[in-house]
Specification:
Blueprint lengths: L5 H21 L4 E2 L1 H18 L14 E4 L5 H11 L39 H14 L6 E6 L6 H12 L5 E7 L2 E2 L2 E2 H5 L4 H7 L3 E6 L3 H8 L10 E6 L18 E2 L2 H23 L1
Parallel strand pairs: 2-3, 3-4, 4-8, 7-8
Antiparallel strand pairs: 1-9, 5-6
Length: about 290
């Protein structure tokens, strides 16, 4: 199986940490769902830079692959990646969470290019992604659909209805990535509503499943570049991640699911994120 080169990995690290710093700049307005944004950011970075067939100059290109962020509160990650890809000006990011901003706390399809579907009501993204995948078949199109869910979100019943329907209809152009960071707004997912074992549940529903380290760029790339894992089965990637990855004092803390921050905290956070980027780049070189 093809692996990313050292240059490729360094490029993805640079991009993901540039997006982390942009997210922190967006949060100068005082708050945001930083924890899940940072935990899913490496995955979304690989998707848009190495996996997805898309064109920022033509966001509604009929043959594009589709990406659905089911856990819409993680949209800080999606916004920063879309801006980095050139879907809109980076300056638009800094209007985040201001009055009448197209960059809202949940993504709105009609307000911003690159957003496929307005999400935020948890559990809705997978049913929509499955419908889009079925539409491709009806329209005789070969585009693929990728959806990112959270492990806390997986407590929603609509997730499992959609999982059952996807397997029944054999939508093997559909891939779900579960950002399993183990935390949600009030604490550990296992204590609030334990959805484990996710792998066995999706297998029981008829999916092909792989488990990866959601911060290992090679593992992300190799999994997503080899879908469908089994013909006629939808694919599920369970990605083990760290909540708020890249901001050391926020990592693996549920208190950073949604962070109310002072503007004075942002510059220090940006410095720490830059330090973490250098450490990751050093590890690649060893």
């Amino acid at each position: 199986m093809q692996r990313l080169s050292e240059k490729d990995i360094r490029d993805l690290i640079e991009k993901s940490y540039r997006c982390r710093k942009n997210i922190l700049k967006m949060m100068r307005n005082g708050e945001g769902h930083i924890g899940g944004a940072f935990s899913s950011l490496d995955i979304i970075t690989v998707i848009y830079n190495r996996i997805l067939r898309h064109d920022p100059k033509n966001p509604k290109w009929a043959d594009r692959d589709r990406f659905i962020l089911s856990a819409g509160h993680k949209c800080l990650a999606l916004y920063s990646v879309l801006a980095d890809q050139g879907y809109f000006s980076q300056e638009v990011l800094y209007r985040y969470n201001t009055f009448d901003s197209p960059v809202a706390m949940h993504p709105e399809e009609k307000r911003l290019p690159g957003i496929e579907f307005s999400t935020g009501s948890l559990g809705h993204g997978l049913p929509v992604a499955n419908a889009i995948a079925l539409a491709a078949r009806l329209d005789k199109k070969d585009y693929r659909v990728f959806a990112v869910l959270g492990d806390g979100e997986s407590a929603e019943g609509s997730v499992w209805e959609a999982a059952m329907a996807a397997a029944h209809h054999k939508t093997d152009n559909l891939t779900v990535i579960i950002d399993r960071n183990g935390l949600q707004v009030n604490g550990a997912t296992r204590d609030i509503m334990d959805s484990s074992p996710l792998e066995e549940k999706f297998k029981a529903f008829g999916w092909a499943v792989k488990t990866i380290n959601g911060h290992d760029f090679n593992q992300i790339y190799q999994a997503l570049s080899s879908v469908p894992f089994i013909k006629d089965k939808p694919s599920c990637v369970v990605a083990d991640t760290v909540k708020c990855k890249g901001l050391p004092y926020g990592e693996a803390k549920f208190q950073f699911h949604h962070w109310h921050c002072e503007n004075s905290e942002i510059d220090n956070a940006i410095t720490l994120v830059e330090d973490e980027k250098r450490k990751e780049l050093d590890r690649v070189a060893k």
